[in-house]
Amino acid sequence: MNSENFTLSEKIVSPSYIRQGSQARRSHEQLIRHLLEQGKCPEEGWSESTIELFLNELAVMDSNNFLGNCGVGEREGRVASSLVARRHYRLIHGIGRSGDIAAIQPKAAGSSLLNKLTNSVVLDILKLAGVRSVASCFVVPMATGMSLTLCFLTLRHRRPKARYIIWPRIDQKSCFKAMITAGFEPVVVENILEGDELRTDLEAVERKMEELGAENILCVHSTTSCFAPRVPDRLEELATLCAKYNIPHIVNNAYGVQSSKCMHLIQQGARVGRIDAFVQSLDKNFMVPVGGAIIAGFDESFIQEISQMYPGRASASPSLDVLITLLTLGASGYKKLLSERKELKSLASAHGERLLHTPHNPISLAMSLDGLQAESDKAVTQLGSMLFTRQVSGARVIPLGKEQTISGHTFRGFMSHSEAYPSPYLNAASAVGITREDVTLCIKRLDKCLKTLKKELNVAKSCSQAPPSSQEDTAGE
Q: How far is residue 62's CA from residue 380's CA, in Å, rounded to a whole number?
């Protein structure tokens, strides 16, 4: 309804009522105008009616929704199911063009505007979360691992002689396979044990730089967010080394946006040294479905180069999901979510265990399972099974000595980020969206599992120590 239609409506319904409706409509449009003017996440969240109005306005700007459109090409935004069309708000054309995921589509002004606005709003959120000097970012419809691969492939053109990626070890398959998929050889640098924490071995990293030669190294691939007892890499020192040897630096910041500590490390690393790009997951940081990531950096031209490396158009679903979410929350709502992250409290002392001291990990914590290990080799993994069957998801039980081969490389002590971590443990993450009720229920079920498991172990131990029954007793029975 434009002003002309409102005027015509006054001839049908009382003008005072129409003017009231017009003012209500104008309040929605004013929010949309501020978004278009500023390109930032609104301070306060929008209502669903405002968001749906906005998305419908975008959709009618795409050619597949033109009333008189006659599409005769192979890609005209045709959808067989009306349910699918509604699921996507009839924004069917996706984002980008064949040469650049950030390019404008002539057929899809609405989808193109959605793409640009989403990238702008996400950039604002990254700054709000702590990386104030980030220059550019874009949402890509791939999860973190493939997004890292895209960064590595882009660097290939800049460093054609490079064969190696230096990687402080973190036991997570996708970031390792990201390097293999891009065609490079990961140089795994084992972490060093400092107290209970596993930390970056800076001396070993520098030795590898000197040994391999800077021209043969594609980049350093570091990590922020991780499971305790591993802690975020020493980003400032790594960034300084990368600047010293002129080696690119890519940061896996998978679920680090929710952590002010992780974001501060990235900001400081870029300030004192070199960070070329950092990659973060959409689902882990913004509570949207799996399938998207944000690639960001401090050099706008390099981030644009990465976006141009993406072959073909792309799905708009991740961009649409995160834009809807951020418009719903608003900047204040997202900040509130970050402040409400709860640290899981341990039952360690009550069960003869201890909370591992990992002060440099702001998201995850770990509890030793030495007592269970002493009772039985299988007890540690049995605890993991018990938690899973009792619907406690996300808690990880890490036994000693597990081996895993990934793309020909064997990791000893896999999942513990170390070849010889001294104790088995259980860890959990205090991620964005966790509630006090989640924590309370987890503690209750963990406590029950530990008590049940120890009771079963004691019964089994008693049975194994009991003398065998005589034949007469058996016959008498």
A: 56
